[in-house]
Fold these 3 entries.
Entry 1:
Amino acid sequence: MYTLTVVVCLCWIVPYVVDSNLTGGGFGSQYSWVAWEEAKNMAKSTNKPIMVLFHKTWCGACKNLKPKFANTKKLLELSEEFIMVNVEDDEEPSTDGQFMIDGGYIPRIVFLDSQGNIRPEYYNKLRGEKYKYFYPSADQIVTTMIEVISSIDQKREL
């Protein structure tokens, strides 16, 4: 009976670990997710901007965004131009609130340049002054990603 209990417990724990680390917490395993600790160095060496997705496992709006994010081909294509960071639950990279530009709501997406500087000018332009970094649809994320890439390309040409 003891062995059976251990096996049942492991079967419950292992899928959760695999889901969090390999599938992007439901946002898509096809994305090249990078841990925050690695993201800044990768961004500098590749000269790519960073896109940080903040979400919580219990959040209804986050759950609603997951399949939209995971199944949008254009978003996946554009993600190759970014260092993609998926921050779930208590994994937030900073305790000083720097990523809470206009609040700590979730889900929210923040863009950083290749040097790791937060770029607050890249936000969901379809939102009002509140919750500017909230994206209820993949199309809105794609629009901002294109804006970031276009801005970077213009600077490279100078």
Entry 2:
Amino acid sequence: ETGYQRRVHGGESGVELYAEKVQNRALSAITQAESLRYKLMGGLAVRRACYGVLRFVMDNQAKGCEIIVSGKLRAQRAKAMKFKDGYMIRAGHPVTMFVDSATRHVLLRQGVLGVKVSIMLPFDPEGRIGPNKPQPDAVTIFNPKED
């Protein structure tokens, strides 16, 4: 009997997992947070790793990106570093549709670093790389009618 079966009080309930390839990994906050995590665990400098991820995300049609790394970065004293590029919304209902966020913990020798990645997705009428509904404050300007 596994720990999971004890926790859900189930007998031989088979756990089924489905793995699917991410459509656009550059616009997935979870994928980018994991990528940053492995870069930091591999010993890459924080600034270099974050700017690399930021560049990759912004080069793949994201509207904006923000990466926050906090913890003991170099010295004993903990601090936070923010890396931002582009346009990011933070309030209202559109945040749930347009902003993809992920948080990961990086266990290093000197302590734990926290990594937060937020990616502002672009408007996409087909709905493949971003939401198919435009932002409520988006303004479209039509050409004047000829009389």
Entry 3:
Amino acid sequence: MKRLAVVKSHLGSRGASSGCYAVGEKRPQRGEGTWVAPNAAVIGDVVMKDNSSVWFGTTVRGDSATITIGENTNVQDNSCIHADAGVPCTIGDNVTVGHMAMLHGCTVGNGSLIGIGAVVLNKAVIGENCLVGANAFIPEGKVFPPNSLIMGSPAKVVKELGDKHKTVLKFSARHYVANQQRFASTLVPIDDAAYANTGS
């Protein structure tokens, strides 16, 4: 990570709020090339490393402990990340966090993918290059080895992932880096009056 800037007061290039908020002395830190959707909320002691992104409707609330989002990692729409005092949440590099996932005081290894609607609780550890299936439930303190396909409620290892699956996981992270760059440069709010004038 080349640089982390402490966010104090920031407006996006098109006048929209950055979605970042301080709580007392706790302020988000953002590296180069990061993107936060206009209606997302990144609050308090949150570290966003280079090229990471937080998508629409997502809340990342670092009021109690540090939350780290690694390089090239994306946290997709309507997800929630939080941590308890003394139980930080650390998400590694090149991770995809699918829509509506809930991560709380856990650790996610580099290159992993957390499926849609999955829940990962305090002190759970997801190893590197793991795929956590949609709606999986990871109980507190559960530890999974690298390269695992993890499914179920409560979740368990279904099989070990091969090189083909690891390639797919890497592609997901790269795709979202490109997508966030597209949104950062082309997303424009449309005034209601514009629709009124066209009859749409």
